[in-house]
Amino acid sequence: MTLIEVRDHDHPLLGDIVRIADETLGAGLYDVPSLRAAAGAPSATLLAATSEAGVVGWGYGEELSGDRSWYAQFGDRALACASGARVVSVRELAVVESHQGRGMGRALAEAVLAWARRRGAERAIAAAWLSPAPRTSAPLFERLGFQRLGVAAAPYEADSRERGWRCRFCGGPCTCQAAFYGLALSP
Q1: What's the pTM?
Q2: For the segment 118-159, what is each residue's pLDDT rounded down to a tens digit?
Q3: Mind listing the domains of the chain with CATH numbers?
Q4: Contact assessment for residue 36 and residue 14, using Cβ atoms and an 8 Å cutoff
Q5: What are the residue ranges in the chain where pLDDT is below 70?
Q6: Which of 28, 50, 55, 82 has a CA positioned 20 to 30 A from the CA of residue 73?
Q7: What contacts 181, CB < 8 A, 6 or more positions away?
């Protein structure tokens, strides 16, 4: 497996990442223009995991700025964790089913956390879908030392209705629960 940091706005891997997002997370959640913006943002990192089969996973981390009230639905502890000055969100980790269980998710998460540390982030946060998927990122975050700070009933429902993406498990707007995780980062 090789990890590639996607920094070029027109990187040819963006279409493959959208395909994996559609397959693993839900159709329409991401598109090439939104990923192009992430790939070019200095406050974000976009990673592709490749194998002999091509792109088989991806990760996305972003330094938070602005309003963080969305995290209040996970409870006071989660909102406090997300409200720090230098907080990076592990926004997405996804690996195609045929390549899960091989350490790719962990490698992607560790690469996002290493990027966060280089930026001087004090904390990393993540939300893990608690969907009927055979594998979710919740156990991975716990193995990496993240602490579960709250659970929200359907945190992605409004976004999925507004943007029109379909949850892979709900078949329509996403009503899956999600757990919020926080991790103190040391330099």
Answers
A1: 0.93
A2: 999 999 999 998 977 777 899 999 999 999 999 999 999 999
A3: 2-184 (3.40.630.30)
A4: yes
A5: 187
A6: 28
A7: 125, 126, 127, 128, 138, 141, 142, 146, 147, 148, 149
